[in-house]
Amino acid sequence: MPIYAYRCPHCELEFDKLVRADTVVTCPRCGAADVAKQVALTAPQGKSKAIVARARAQAAKEGHFSHYSAAERAKVR
Ligand SMILES: [Zn+2]
Questions:
Q1: CA–CA dist 67, 57 (Å, integer)
Q2: Structural domains in the chain (count)
Q3: In CATH, what number is assigned to the domain containing residue 39?
Q4: Ligand 1 center to 57 CA (angstroms)
Q5: Which structural domain range is residue 31 located in?
Q6: Same domain? 25 vs 12
């Protein structure tokens, strides 16, 4: 089963979800059912760490470190 990255057009939450063929994906924050699949971020099961790494790289680029633990922040800086 693949893990897909989704983005909610209503509250702009981005999240990953393990999806079966019959799964109806809804936003975990606001419950919207018309979330958009992020095709570019699709990854095979077990590769969700790569998605996290990418999100962290983006966060670092934007200058905030909210995804990092204190120990990891020390390494980055
Ligand atoms: Zn939402």
A1: 10
A2: 2
A3: 2.20.28
A4: 23
A5: 1-45
A6: yes
State whether the Cα torsion 64-69-14-12 is positive or negative: negative
- Residue 23 CA, ligand 1 centroid: distance in Å: 17
Distance 75 CA to ligand 1 centre (A): 33
Place of tokens 């063929």: 21
- Per-residue model confidence as pLDDT tens digits over 28-77: 999 999 999 887 545 556 667 777 888 888 887 877 766 667 777 777 76
CA of 34 to the centre of ligand 1 (A): 9
Residues 38 and 54 in one domain: no
Looking at the structure, tell me whether residues 36 and 59 fall in a common domain.
no
Beta bridge partners of 3: 18, 43
Count other C-beta atoms under 10 Å from residue 49's C-beta.
9
Distance CA 54, CA 63 (A): 14
Q: pTM (2 decimals)?
A: 0.48
